[in-house]
Amino acid sequence: MHTIALGPSFLDPDKLISTFGLIGILVIVFAESGLLIGFFLPGDSLLFTTGLLVSDGKFSQPLWLVCLLLWVAAVAGDQVGFLFGRKVGPSLFNRPDSRLFKRENVEKAHEFFEKYGPRSIVLARFVPIVRTFTPIVAGVARMRYRTFVVYNVVGGFLWACGVTLLGHSLGQVRFVRDNIEFILVAIVLISVIPVAIELLRARSASRKQAAVDGSEPAPGRGRHRASDDRPDPEPGHRR
């Protein structure tokens, strides 16, 4: 089975799996779930391809064990990200940009976290880039640890096991097996849709706010003193 490289050749899920095996997959899932350097890794397509290869008999481990290990790796990654956020704190937002770190990624995750609250820990799993930084932002925001653990366990299961099981199920469909490269491209595009929607919403909100700011009168203009608002006294009448 051969899959198309969705980006640089070294990030091709098929190549990653054939080179590093299950251990490499677990490391990548762990890194993408909570390490700053893991935001560019192909998590969704990697999990899907893993499910396909399990259905094709390319792994000696049974499906349930693969899903369990992926789940543990995803949960452990978010835990590390959360603890890192607690340790680093707000200074993370002042960290200068570098080749592997962009403050805008942290800010997007922060907006996502502010909008959805604890649910963002689950929802972010299915949004590339955001899923890497959301647990870190949750740690910075001092989210209650017990609450984070619950949502982390649920989100890790739905993402790691859900996408892998989807790949395993569809891998038994002939049409999917014959068009695997297009299926993987579709998965990546679908996973990017939430990010595109959030960017469009943020841009629209920014334009509206700029329009509101532009329409507000400058301080001291368009306002009258309270005494000027009173009607003039009738002729011959003393104040």
Q: How would you characterize the overall build of this protein?
A:
- The protein is mainly alpha-helical.
- Helices cover 66% and strands 0% of the residues.
- The chain contains nine helices and no strands.
- Helix 1 packs parallel to helix 6 (130-140) and helix 2 (43-55) runs antiparallel to helix 9 (180-215).
- The protein is globular and about 60 Å long.
- It starts with 12 loop residues before the first helix and ends in a 24-residue tail after the last helix.
- Mean pLDDT is 75; it is low at 1-11 and 221-230.
Task: Please tag this protein with its features.
239 residues, 66% helix, mainly alpha, 9 helices, disordered N terminus
Task: Give the SSE map.
Blueprint: H1 13-34, H2 43-55, H3 63-88, H4 103-116, H5 120-123, H6 130-140, H7 145-170, H8 174-178, H9 180-215
Helix pairs in contact: 1-2, 1-3, 1-6, 2-7, 2-9, 3-6, 3-7, 4-6
Could you tell me the strand content as a percent range?
under 5%
Q: Calculate Rg over CA atoms.
A: 25 Å
Count of individual beta strands: 0
Q: Provide the structure class.
A: mainly alpha
